[in-house]
Each structure stands twice: as C-alpha cells, then as structure tokens.
Structure prediction request, 98 residues.
Amino acid sequence: MAALTWNPTDGGTFEQFIAKTTLDANGHNGLDPEFDKNNVVRYGYHPEWSDGAIGQNGWGELAAANGFTLRRPFRQPHEVQLRRQVPRGHGRVDQGPD
Prediction:
C-alpha cells in the first residue's frame, strides 16, 4: 500500500485499489461494469473516524491535496462603527438596523 499514489484528477492507483477491493452482493468489484453501487457489502476504503463527527481525520489529506482549506484566515476589522447610540443604562451598545 505504501506504493499507492493519489491525485485529485483521477484518484491514482489509490482509487483503483479502493474500487478493486470494494464488493457488491454478487461478488463484483468496483472496476466491474456489473458492479451494483446500491448493494455494496464490503467497502475498499473505510476512513478512520468516518462517523461524521471527526471525519476529516480520514479524508483530510485527500481534501487538502485537492485544494480544500478548513477555514479562511480570520481578518480583524480595522475599525468598528456603531449604527445607533443607546442611552446609558440599557446595557447594549448596538440595537441593530433601524
């Protein structure tokens, strides 16, 4: 497995490995034209933490290789403008749009 390659264009040999080791109920692998994607009994790739809660542990490197970034860099505003002054004692600085 160490020799497998991956790229975002066609998945490389890693995608071929996954397809070949994925089986449907009739014993067809993912490379077979008879493969039934709606009746899979064994998946060729099961990423760690694939429960959806922390899934990026299993697929994060693949996504990053495709250009995905988890978040945009935070930009601190240079100034903040209040829309309306509130009389003292009301406890709120901004009451939102007029």
